[in-house]
Amino acid sequence: MARQPNRSQSGTNIQQVRQQNAASASGGQFGTEFASETNAQEVRRQNAASASGQGSFGTEFASETDVQEVRQQNQQAEANKAKNSGQFGGQGY
């Protein structure tokens, strides 16, 4: 098959690639497309809230955790571990 003008051997449009590269190098369409969707002030507010511990993520999960229940479960697990470690100690395995 004969090579067409402005096409690579695989059929890529060379001129289009050059235009895309030039646009990319000068901060073209790709960069501005996503930058326009980002509200910088909102991101700063979220970062400040996160750094000060006032964010909704931390409080959401903290309010669902019963600290006393977790302590009790940890104590029970430790007691079971101590009880079970003595069961198999002298059997010669």
UniProtKB/TrEMBL annotation:
Keywords: Repeat, Sporulation. GO terms for biological process: sporulation resulting in formation of a cellular spore. Coiled coil: none annotated. Residues 1-27, 35-54 have a biased composition (Polar residues). InterPro entries: Spore_gamma. Belongs to the gamma-type SASP family. Residues 72-84 have a biased composition (Low complexity). This is Small, acid-soluble spore protein gamma-type. Residues 1-93 are annotated as: Disordered.
